[in-house]
Every structure is written in structure tokens, then in C-alpha cells.
Design goal:
- The chain is mainly α.
- It has 4 helices and no strands.
- The chain folds into 2 domains: about 100 residues, no CATH class; about 40 residues.
- Keywords: Membrane, Transmembrane, Transmembrane helix.
Length: about 160
């Protein structure tokens, strides 16, 4: 009977060994997950540093562009002041016409002045807005042919 008891005790340890093996496997999986988390933290830190560097670079480029735009604007305003000081002998109507034409430069002059990509974009948006407004006016007139006054609800 002593042999049977020993055999029973030996068989009773098998489920305990299986549980111990499962705990060891879970431990290995947890260690691998912890390593993966550390790698993810490192990658996230590197990407964050990269994007901060890119942001700083683009802020620098934008600040240079803004500086150039302000400088060009100041140069244009000083040129307009000197032009207006030279033409004091002209009558008021001629002066007003010249100021209006200076505000609306020719296409060649305008293309030369638009060096900045941002200013090109702003000009394109303004042109597109005017085209859209013309199209909307045409559509409104087509839908309401008897209307004599234009509907300006959406116009600014």
C-alpha cells in the first residue's frame, strides 16, 4: 500500500507541473510584451523628436517668408509715397486714377511681384472666389430671370 500511496502522490504532482509550465509560458509572453512596449516607446520618442524638428524647420521657413512679405510691403509703400510726392502738381482726378492703377498692376508686373508661394496661393484663392461668384450670379439669373435686383444674401 505504501507503493500505491507513493504512486498517487506522484500522479498528483502532474497537474501542478502543468500549471507551473503555464505560468512560465505566461511569464515569457509578459516579458516579450514588455520588450515590445519598450521598443514602441523608443520609436514614439524618435518620431516625436523628428516631428518637432520638422515643425521648427517649417516655422523658420514661414517666419522668413513673413519677413520677406513685410519687407516687400514696406518697400512698395515707400515707393508709392515717393511717387505721390513727385506728382503733387497733377490735379485730384489724375492722382486718384494713378493710385487706382497702381493698386491693379498689369499681369506681367503682378507675376514678377508674386515671389512668395503663400502670396501666390492667396491670389489664386481670390481669383477662384471671383470666378465662383460670377458663376453663382449666372446661375441665380438663370433660375430667376424676372428678378431685377440681384440676391446678395451670400455675398460679403
Amino acid at each position: 500500500m505504501s507503493i500505491g500511496a507513493r504512486l498517487g502522490r506522484g500522479l498528483g504532482g502532474i497537474p501542478e507541473l502543468l500549471r507551473l509550465t503555464q505560468v512560465v509560458n505566461i511569464g515569457k509572453i509578459a516579458a516579450q510584451a514588455a520588450r515590445a512596449v519598450r521598443v514602441a516607446e523608443t520609436v514614439t520618442g524618435v518620431l516625436s523628436a523628428f516631428f518637432i524638428a520638422v515643425d521648427v524647420f517649417f516655422v523658420f521657413l514661414d517666419s522668413r517668408e513673413i519677413h520677406n512679405i513685410r519687407r516687400d510691403y514696406a518697400l512698395k509703400s515707400s515707393q508709392q509715397e515717393s511717387t505721390s510726392n513727385q506728382t503733387t502738381g497733377l490735379n485730384e482726378q489724375t492722382s486718384n486714377n494713378r493710385d487706382t492703377t497702381n493698386l491693379l498692376p498689369s499681369n506681367n508686373q503682378q507675376a514678377e511681384e508674386l515671389k512668395s508661394e503663400t502670396m501666390k496661393f492667396v491670389t489664386k484663392i481670390k481669383d477662384t472666389t471671383e470666378e465662383l461668384r460670377t458663376i453663382l450670379d449666372t446661375l441665380r439669373d438663370a433660375l430667376n430671370p424676372n428678378s431685377e435686383t440681384p440676391n446678395t444674401d451670400n455675398c460679403e
